[in-house]
Amino acid sequence: MTSATAIAHPNIALIKYWGKADETLSLPATGSLSMTLDVFPTRTTVTVDDTARDTLQLNGRAATEGELARVTKFLDLVRELAGDTRPAAVVSENTVPTGAGLASSASGFAALATAAAATYGLDLDTRDLSRLARRGSGSASRSIPGGVAIWHAGDDAASFSETVAAPPLAMVIATVDAGEKPISSREAMRRTIATSPFFPAWIPSTAASLELMVAACAAGDVTRIGELTESNALRMHAVIQGSEPPIRYLTAASTRVFDAVAGMRAHGLEAYATADAGPNVVVLTRPEDAAAVAATLTAEAGIAEPVIALPGPGAYLVDGSE
Ligand code: PMV
């Protein structure tokens, strides 16, 4: 194939990935678990080209040198596997606000991995595609399978993502700031590992929470899933804030959302908050409660347009003309 187009959706972790065991292979220090969303897809087309080097168009503009370098590094890996040296033209459209802590890198690299593998003729199953996407951005591994996915820690062969059984869940996305985050998750992870005194405690704590989360998913226990989600998110922000110099992703507006969510629980509405490497907050709830959660976020925390998401599909190829 000389051209292929793929669509992938972002995922939000219920048990977070924060810290690498191997930076080159993008192996995580611990396993993690997420829900892929059915909103904010990324659509990426990879076309083998006769040009001298790779090109990248991102949301209708030419990419920066830094963005292009990251994509070229990833394509080099694909080309090495495929035994092909030809450059490619990559065109990618993100509908999630880029860099706002809503995992645009996850949908981006999941779509790129899926399209590039097809373009360069690699015949990969979901497991190997998730290992490949992992090399672009760790969390992208979890956007390859659909729904609720676990990303295993382990060596290169064992660190892949797969769907796990889970009860019906919904997420309500509270965007408090759609701007670029001040420090990338890649850089912040490095600093956390090097300087946060809490990092050594984060690893076993997260591994233990992941085991409990897998059991709660299997049991269909939404309350336990929610409790573990909120606690793991706050622990991640604590370990990040313990870095030197400190990194703070949560803002006063984020805290207002956490307060509103605690208020919902006090009034019998089951909702649990989480946040990735940015100020935006995502609220986990049951699908039948999502509209009430969204309305309360607007009334109590001033969130203009909360977005309701259900579990989304894994990454897939589409006809380029679609
Ligand atoms: O995939 P990366 O390298 O952008 O890291 C993502 C890290 C978090 O989003 C904060 C947590 C997670 O598990 O998705």
TrEMBL record:
Lineage: Bacteria, Bacillati, Actinomycetota, Actinomycetes, Micrococcales
GO molecular function: ATP binding; diphosphomevalonate decarboxylase activity
Domain annotation Mvd1 C-terminal: ranges: 172-299
Gene that this polypeptide is encoded by: mvaD
Descriptive protein name: diphosphomevalonate decarboxylase
Alphabetic keyword roster: ATP-binding, Lipid biosynthesis, Lipid metabolism, Lyase, Nucleotide-binding
GO biological process: isopentenyl diphosphate biosynthetic process, mevalonate pathway
GO cellular component, one term: cytosol
Pfam family, one: MDD_C
InterPro entries: GHMP_kinase_C_sf, Mev_decarb, Mev_diP_decarb, MVD-like_N, Mvd1_C, Ribosomal_Su5_D2-typ_SF, Ribsml_uS5_D2-typ_fold_subgr
NCBIfam families from the UniProt entry: mevDPdecarb (TIGR01240)
PANTHER family: DIPHOSPHOMEVALONATE DECARBOXYLASE
Family, as annotated: Belongs to the diphosphomevalonate decarboxylase family.
tRNA processing among keywords: no
Domain Diphosphomevalonate decarboxylase-like N-terminal: 8-157
EC number per UniProt: 4.1.1.33
